[in-house]
């Protein structure tokens, strides 16, 4: 018999608000660097230095590489110790590293600070959505993850805006100081939160994962399909974000107008789509068990012809196609992350998110910008845009193919969680069969 589980645990809304605020500054911090890059280049390199752009361009890979590598290690720690402790320490670490970037006297020191920013975000990235999954039941995770991920388009745009405004008035160093202060405060709040996971009544410890629990991740088909689809999506989105300014210039649009316009499209379309995708997927779940993958896959498939239309449609009609394409791309943000949380056992969720981060970035946006640049340099930006379009289509097909496994894997994970609830007084949890 299924045991009734409360809709949410005490402190759930507080946790959501705190993690949403942290996620907002997470993305502000990432994109403020891009906003002040020209000033950083002027500060550390001569105007005629041919390697200047390549050097400042290395700051982003320095972050991404350490972010990917740190996520699995810190995710493992978060599965074994208090996730709030890991989040708090990591948020404070990346905030201090960001502030240290403003103090950097040499480019090498600035490069080092971005490495520590990546380490800090590598601990936060997998732990934060896992905490939300611990607080909220399966039926509500789509909308909860959507609310949490709404910080992505908003924070990214604010990073550009705030970075540019502060740089123009106070200098690029103050942009780093300004975004670091809220992070330090929010990180301290994490230490006052209670871990929502079940504790052993004998030892008072969180239930520890076993080796078999980790191996189960690779045997969970919907987890594998989700990672593969998100990788193709990240490839497309990462390449799109990096090369869109160059593509708009290629289409003879003035950069001073086109780039801010695309930023506005990302905020409006991305925010609306992220929220809508999570709520729609939750509403459809009772009728369509694989609704999280359905919404994610359908969004990417609808985006495919709109990306193609963007190539052939003249301006200003192109803006409409681009708006709709971005809208459908972001539909998957809430549902795909909710599905990731739903199909793995509670005691290995952080590791699952960490492994997902490693895979989708290593095989996605870590190499899509240089690959698309290589293609564009030897053909044209339109050909590179075709590659982005087909990557979006591929991700949509993979999500739809994984639909048939999602309900079964979610039920198996839910059963494991129920067994954990029933046996909370035992020193070891017996996985559900």
How would you describe this structure to a colleague?
The protein is an all-alpha fold and 433 residues long. The protein folds into two domains: 11-198, Growth Hormone, Chain: A; 212-433, Up-down Bundle (Growth Hormone, Chain: A), CATH 1.20.1250. Helices cover 79% and strands 0% of the residues. It is built from 18 helices and no strands. It has helices at residues 12-44, 52-57, 59-80, 83-103, 107-135, 141-149, 151-170, 172-190, 211-219, 221-250, 255-284, 291-312, 317-329, 333-342, 349-365, 368-378, 381-401, 403-422. The longest helix is centred in the first third of the chain and has 33 residues, at 12-44. The chain is globular, with a radius of gyration of 22 Å. Mean pLDDT is 83; it is low at 1-6, 199-206 and 418-433.
What average pLDDT do the residues reach?
83
In total, the number of domains comes to: 2
| End-to-end C-alpha gap | 14 Å
Radius of gyration: 22 Å
Q: What low-confidence regions span 5 or more consecutive residues with pLDDT below 50?
A: 1-6, 199-206, 418-433
CATH homologous superfamily title of the largest domain: MFS general substrate transporter like domains
> What is the total tally of β strands?
0
Strand content: under 5%
* Overall form: globular
Number of helices: 18
> Pairing-aware structural class of the strands and helices?
mainly alpha
Quote the CATH topology of the largest domain: Growth Hormone, Chain: A
């Amino acid at each position: 018999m299924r045991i009734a589980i409360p809709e949410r645990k005490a402190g759930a809304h507080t946790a959501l608000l705190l993690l949403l605020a942290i996620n907002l500054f997470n993305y502000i911090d990432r994109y403020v660097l891009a906003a002040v890059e020209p000033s950083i280049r002027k500060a550390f390199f001569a105007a005629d230095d041919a390697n200047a752009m390549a050097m400042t361009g290395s700051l982003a890979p320095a972050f991404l590489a350490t972010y990917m590598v740190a996520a699995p290690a810190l995710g493992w720690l978060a599965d074994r110790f208090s996730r709030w402790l890991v989040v708090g320490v990591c948020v404070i670490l990346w905030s201090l590293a960001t502030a240290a970037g403003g103090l950097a006297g040499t480019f090498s020191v600035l490069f080092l600070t971005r490495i520590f920013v990546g380490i800090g975000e590598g601990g936060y990235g997998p732990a934060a959505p896992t905490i939300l999954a611990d607080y909220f039941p399966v039926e509500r995770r789509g909308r909860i993850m959507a609310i949490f991920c709404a910080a992505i388009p908003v924070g990214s745009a604010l990073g550009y805006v705030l970075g540019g405004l502060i740089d123009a008035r106070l200098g690029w160093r103050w942009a780093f100081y300004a975004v670091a202060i809220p992070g330090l405060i929010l990180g301290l709040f994490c230490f006052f939160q209670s871990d929502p996971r079940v504790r052993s009544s004998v030892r008072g410890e969180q239930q520890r994962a076993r080796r078999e629990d980790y191996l189960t991740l690779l045997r969970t088909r919907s987890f594998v399909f989700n990672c593969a689809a998100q990788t193709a999506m990240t490839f497309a989105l990462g390449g799109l974000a990096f090369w869109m300014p160059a593509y708009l210039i290629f289409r003879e649009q003035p950069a001073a107008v086109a780039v801010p316009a695309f930023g506005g499209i990302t905020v409006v379309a991305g925010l609306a789509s992220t929220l809508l995708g999570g709520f729609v997927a939750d509403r459809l779940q009772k009728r369509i068990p694989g609704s999280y993958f359905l919404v994610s896959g359908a969004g990417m498939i609808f985006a495919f012809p709109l990306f193609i239309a963007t190539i052939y449609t003249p301006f200003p009609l192109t803006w409409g196609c681009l708006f709709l394409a971005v809208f459908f791309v972001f539909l998957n943000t809430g549902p795909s992350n909710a599905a990731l949380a739903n199909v793995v056992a509670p005691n290995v969720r952080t590791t699952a998110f960490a492994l997902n981060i490693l895979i989708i970035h290593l095989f996605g946006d870590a190499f899509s910008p240089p690959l698309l640049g290589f293609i564009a340099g030897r053909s044209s930006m339109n050909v590179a845009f075709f590659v982005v379009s087909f990557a979006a289509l591929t991700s949509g097909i993979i999500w739809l193919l994984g639909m048939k496994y999602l309900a079964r894997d979610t039920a198996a994970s839910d059963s494991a969680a129920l067994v954990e609830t029933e046996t909370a007084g035992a020193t070891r949890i017996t996985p559900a069969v």
